[in-house]
Amino acid sequence: MATLSSIETLLRDQRGAPPIDKWHPELSGDIDIVIKADGRWIHEGGEIKRHKLVKLFSSILRRENDGEYYLVTPVEKWRVTVEDLPLLIIDFECSDLSSGQRIVLKTNVDTWFELGAEHPLVVDIDPVTQEPKPSVHLSHGLQARINRASFYKLVEMAECKNEYLVLEAGGAEFELGSV
């Protein structure tokens, strides 16, 4: 378990994100970038291996009302392809406070989000495999898929309520599935 001060540090110590919500250029076109379901970014058939470059691109990524994903700058807007969700939750830290549990989630691009009403956890069921597909709503219309290991740790923290596994965090409750 993390301490309250370490959770505050994780959330505070992130560099400022670009103001992409204020940028509205015309569509420049499609760019040959595919964000794979496993979190890899592919450009013209080759994987972008520089983590700092992926972090930079992810900082200017948004999903718009048309359901499409775009890399946006003040003067350009390029549509990219996303196989599943553009980001992954790969780890988390939690603290247990008398006022309620806090959970902060780490993405594969080293950003942290606090689980709660602003960033809710949703568990859909894959219609083919019947497996849970947990995700978290982030900023700019984006979502992140929670990796299996992190999801199972969250399930262990959940309590049974009315035949459902319920996780409480950030003053909100999230159903993880039926018992």
From TrEMBL:
<feature type="domain" description="DUF1285">
    <location>
        <begin position="18"/>
        <end position="84"/>
    </location>
</feature>
<feature type="domain" description="DUF1285">
    <location>
        <begin position="86"/>
        <end position="176"/>
    </location>
</feature>
<dbReference type="InterPro" id="IPR048341">
    <property type="entry name" value="DUF1285_N"/>
</dbReference>
<dbReference type="Pfam" id="PF21028">
    <property type="entry name" value="DUF1285_C"/>
</dbReference>
<dbReference type="Pfam" id="PF06938">
    <property type="entry name" value="DUF1285_N"/>
</dbReference>
<dbReference type="InterPro" id="IPR048342">
    <property type="entry name" value="DUF1285_C"/>
</dbReference>
<protein>
    <submittedName>
        <fullName>DUF1285 domain-containing protein</fullName>
    </submittedName>
</protein>
<dbReference type="InterPro" id="IPR010707">
    <property type="entry name" value="DUF1285"/>
</dbReference>
